[in-house]
Structure formats: C-alpha cells, structure tokens
C-alpha cells in the first residue's frame, strides 16, 4: 500500500538521500546518550536501506537552548525547540521520538498521539504500570482513529544475531524450551563517589538496574522464547544508599559531582527467576556493580533439540549447539552472523564485515518506517512495553516480599 502523502509532505528534494520518496519528519525530545543513538538511527536508516518513506531529522527538543542547538548541529537536525509541547504542535512533524528520562514518557507520548503523531518511546516504556497502561490505551485509540503507531525502543531485538536467533527458535531448532538464562552486567556505579544522576532516583527513572537493564533482558528473553513470563521470584539490593549530588553537565552515564549528598532511591541490582507459560524456567541478573563488565548482555536458551548463546560484547556471533549431532562431534559452534541472508545484512557490507551497537538503532528506525508505511502494528508495541512493565512490577513486589513467587498480571 502506498504511504499517505499530505499536501505539506513534499517528496524529499532531488540531491537528498531518498529523493522522490515521501518524507517521515521526525521530532525528537531529548538529546543525551539515547538522543544521540536514535539520531544516528534516523540519519542512517534511509541511506542504507531502501525505505518506503525517507526519515527527515526535522526538529530536536531540549530545555537548554544552547545545548539543544549544539546537539542539532552535531547530529544533523534542521530545527530546535525548547518545549516539547511546541514540538508536538508543529505540523511539520509526523513522528515523535521520546528519548527523555522515564518520568516524562507518558505525558509526552499521550499528547503526541492525541496530536496525530506516531511515537517511538525509549525503554522502559514508563516508570509505572499505570502510566504504561495509559500510553497503551492512547496508542490503541490513535491506531483506530488515525492508524498512528506507538513503538517501544527495545533495540537489542534488532541486531542481526538476536533477530536470527529468534528465527532459529521459531523454526524449532531448539525443540521444547527448558531454560533461558539472561544477564546484563555493567560497572559504572562501582565507585561510591559516582554522582546521584537521574537514573538513581525513583521519581525520574522508576527503578534502577531493574528498569534500565532488566527491562532489556526481559524483553529479549520473551522475544527469543516466543512466549511470556507467567511469574517471578526476586531479590533486589541498593549497595550504596547515599551519593554526591550531581553538579555540572552530564555526559553519557556520568556527571560531575557537586557539594552535598542525596539518597539513592532505586535498586542497584536485581536478580530474579521466572517461569514461562510453557513451563520453561528463566533466570535474570541486572546490575551496575559487576566490576569489569561494561555492557555485558548475555543470553542462553536451552531446548531439548539444541541451545543458542549470544553475548552483546561479541555481537556478530551466535553460538549454536545441535543436539542431533553425533556425540563425538557435537558441541557449540560459532555462527558468524555477517552473511547477506542474515537479518538486516543484505543492505550492509560484504560477508565478515561486522556491525556494532549503533546499528540496532538504525534497524529500529528502518522497521518503524516500514510498519508505518505498510500500516502494520510495530513490534515491540506499547502493549509489549506495558507487559514488560508488569514483569518489572512483579519483580519489585516479589523482592519486597522476600522473593515470594509473584504471578504477572495479564500475561497475554
Ligand atoms: C545505561 O545503563 C544504558 O545506557 C541503558 O540505559 C541502555 O538502554 C543500554 O542500551 C546501555 O546502557
């Protein structure tokens, strides 16, 4: 089906990439780490993939006029705003991409959908189940009303190796699934003097390692398994309860410390076990205190016909054990996921020329453009983001009750 093109959606000018295609004009809110990553995605997707609509980096928004101008220049955005409401009110924006801390996701997403924009929202979808429910209801209504889409930014689904792993599981290569083992380990809070940034306060981040890292591995585990968790038993801990207040500008995950200290109000680490609806068992560990581990997301799945293992720090590889092989020759073998018939790779480099972290954001932009142009509900949708939020809430509830097994509300 041809994408709808309104009068003001002129095809992209001749010299630009995607010339002759209707544009998809993006307005982004937030310009820090995730803003930079998403900018890279929007900037690159239409230059690598043959997309039905050409992403245009129309407007970027942040409260500090000087800083947002600098971000616009660095990342290639045409215009700036300092109030997200002004961005949403613009008629030269088709899609709003939310890269702010979790406390503003719901308000921006609901308003953007009501204003007739598609929405991409960084994970975790919200800070609470209630907010995620409101966002999901708004997205359902906006889809019925105007075919508007709401997508949650679980970018790790969009690496060639994880997407290929999903294909193998769906093709039955693992047989009946018995175990999923997932860890996401970082170490940027090991130093007790690391400042109290927004990620360490419940009112801005919702939770700590749980929502920031645990959300990724819950989504990835469920995506790869092709089914949802039915319940969890959990432990959480906050190792350092008081930290220096942040002072000057933040960069990436760090910030400059100022005078005084404040309380850490989120978990530093979360450990939980889970049960899938099929009876398969899962374990999860999310922490920012795994000294020496920088961005170590690992996941392994064991079925009665085989196993798969993935490590984000070696993201062009997938390890596969086929239990049907004769014992003497069996064992995990490395699949180098760099062939043109692996997911996403026909548009990139010749075989063996691997991809990196940022490509997951390019693929995310690519997939969302296709979903919009083809009038398909995106995956993961806001409803999928809400379901992950319910898992996070069940983890918190279980941890509060000393690991009592906690069913997940509405696991559909
Ligand atoms: C920080 O822990 C963080 O940037 C997460 O917020 C991202 O979602 C993850 O991709 C990398 O680590």
Helix content: 25-40%
Note the total helix count. Answer: 10
Q: Which structural class matches the secondary elements? A: alpha/beta
Give the termini distance in whole angstroms.
Answer: 30 Å
Overall spatial form: globular
Order of helices and strands: EHEHEHEHEHEHEHHEEEEEEEEEHHE
Distinct compounds present: alpha-L-sorbopyranose
Question: Which strand order does the major sheet show?
Answer: 16-15-14-13-7-12-11-8-17
Number of beta-strand segments: 17
Main sheet characteristics: 9 strands, mixed
Keywords: Oxidoreductase
Domain Gfo/Idh/MocA-like oxidoreductase N-terminal: 24-142
Region (Disordered): 1-19
Protein name: Gfo/Idh/MocA family oxidoreductase
Question: What would you say this structure looks like, in words?
Answer:
Helices cover 31% and strands 25% of the residues. The chain has helices at 33-48, 65-75, 84-89, 105-114, 129-146, 160-170, 202-205, 209-225, 359-373, 382-400, and strands at 23-29, 54-61, 79-81, 95-98, 118-122, 150-153, 177-185, 229-237, 242-246, 257-263, 269-276, 281-287, 296-303, 306-311, 317-322, 333-336, 406-407. The protein is globular. The strands form 3 sheets. It has a 9-stranded mixed beta sheet. A 6-stranded parallel beta sheet has the order 3-2-1-4-5-6, sandwiched between helices. The model has no long low-confidence stretch (mean pLDDT 95). Helix 6 (160-170) crosses helix 8 (209-225) and helix 8 (209-225) packs across helix 10. The chain is α/β, with parallel strands linked by helices. It contains 10 helices and 17 strands. It binds alpha-L-sorbopyranose. The site of alpha-L-sorbopyranose has 6 residues, from helix 8.
